[in-house]
Amino acid sequence: MKKLKLEELGRISVDEFKESEKIPVCILLDNIRSLHNVGSAFRTADAFRMEKIYLTGITGTPPHREIQKTALGATESVDWEFVESPAAAIADLKNKGYKIVIIEQTTDSIPLQTFYGEPGVKYCLIFGNEVHGVSEEAIALGDLALEIPQLGTKHSLNVSVCVGIVLWDVFRKLRLS
């Protein structure tokens, strides 16, 4: 066994990424305060060929040194848009036919492992603020809530870890199966 060099990984270029087929999923960051978490979301969205990232509320936007530090160029490959109001972005996505999936612990949330996307349905996954989670206004507009089951003493995960787990699971179910 040997570690692969970058040139051996066979990665596509930014232009090839932009032209490639994406899985029918976008993500919306609802008032994410850490620019490192924003950059991590970009990098993860690139890894799994998500359609787009919506940055809302106080969420920072590229170009920014702190976002770039963790995004490592993914702000160039992944389409993104800033919309001041999370509710306005969600309303627009609903009008475009997206099913709104809140990633949050709610009275009606279901465990992530029980969620399987429907063929032909487009999804928008909403991730919330590091302290307050997904905003109440966004939750009210959601069609479904998912949560990552946890067994430890803490009640939540860092949002960048949450994005990684959820995007991998959704990618695995929609693209690899």
Architecture blueprint of SSEs:
Blueprint: H1 14-19, E1 23-30, H2 35-47, E2 50-56, H3 65-71, H4 74-77, E3 79-83, H5 86-95, E4 98-103, E5 110-111, E6 122-128, H6 136-141, E7 144-147, H7 159-176
Parallel strand pairs: 1-2, 1-6, 2-3, 4-6, 4-7, 5-7
Helix pairs in contact: 2-3, 2-7
Overview of the molecule:
The chain is an alpha/beta fold. It is built from seven helices and seven strands, in the order αβαβααβαβββαβα. It has helices spanning 14-19, 35-47, 65-71, 74-77, 86-95, 136-141, 159-176; strands at residues 23-30, 50-56, 79-83, 98-103, 110-111, 122-128, 144-147. Strand 1 (23-30), helix 2 (35-47) and strand 2 form a beta-alpha-beta unit. The protein starts with 13 loop residues before the first helix and ends with a helix. The model has no long low-confidence stretch (mean pLDDT 96).
Oligomeric nature of the chains: single chain
> How many separate helices?
7
Run of helices and strands: HEHEHHEHEEEHEH
Cα shape? globular
What's the Cα radius of gyration?
16 Å
CATH level-3 fold name of the domain at 25-147: Alpha/beta knot
Mean pLDDT: 96
Which class of secondary structure composition applies to the elements?
alpha/beta
Strand content: 15-25%
Q: Would you identify the CATH architecture of the domain at 25-147? A: 3-Layer(aba) Sandwich
**Sheet with the most strands: spatial strand order:** 3-2-1-6-4-7-5
CATH class descriptor of the domain at 25-147: Alpha Beta
User: Percentage of helical residues?
Assistant: 25-40%
Largest sheet: 7 strands, parallel
CATH homologous superfamily heading of the domain at 25-147: SPOUT methyltransferase, trefoil knot domain
Number of strands: 7
Terminal residue distance: 28 Å
Uncertain parts: none
